[in-house]
Write a structure and sequence with these properties.
It contains six helices and five strands. The protein is of the alpha+beta class. The strands form two sheets. A three-stranded antiparallel sheet has the order 1-5-4. The chain has a two-stranded antiparallel sheet with strand order 2-3. It starts with a strand and ends in a 6-residue tail after the last helix.
Length: 143
């Protein structure tokens, strides 16, 4: 196993909320999957916190991915954010699901994710791990 990339991103929730609500700005909302929008909107009076931390997660994945490519931006088109989805399990634990080109470029990668909120700040940390093959981990004895 080896770590191939690490990403961190911070988002100011109030500024992110303003950008989402700004008239004519649809790119941000279009950068979230239908499932992400449903989840965030279900958070009642303050969906911006959920949107902001998911944006931070997507940015952290892109940074980790770029690191794995020796600091070259991943080549995934104009809106790579839809290729990276934050999903929650039955207990609410978040994880990353990769789609399309992201899944093709990173087929064996495990994505480790940590999200947090504190006051007006949302943050995400992502670690990309290549699990390798068992044969890669244990070298057979040489005769």
């Amino acid at each position: 196993m080896s770590i191939i990339g690490i990403g961190l991103d911070l988002v100011t929730v109030s500024e992110f909320a303003e950008q989402i609500e700004r008239s004519g700005t649809t790119m941000l909302r279009e950068s979230f999957t239908a499932g992400e929008r449903r989840y965030c909107e279900s958070k009642g009076s303050d969906p911006a916190r959920s949107y902001a931390v998911r944006w931070a997660a997507k940015e952290a994945v892109l940074k980790a991915w770029a690191t794995s490519r020796f600091a070259r931006r991943p080549q995934v088109g104009d809106n790579p954010y839809l290729l990276i989805e934050v999903v929650n399990d039955a207990w609410g634990r978040p994880s990353i699901k990769l789609h399309g080109l992201a899944a093709e470029f990173l087929p064996r990668v495990r994505v480790h994710l940590s999200l947090t909120h504190d006051g007006d700040t949302a943050a995400a940390v992502v670690v990309l791990e290549d699990p390798g093959e068992l044969a890669d981990l244990v070298e057979p004895p040489k005769s």
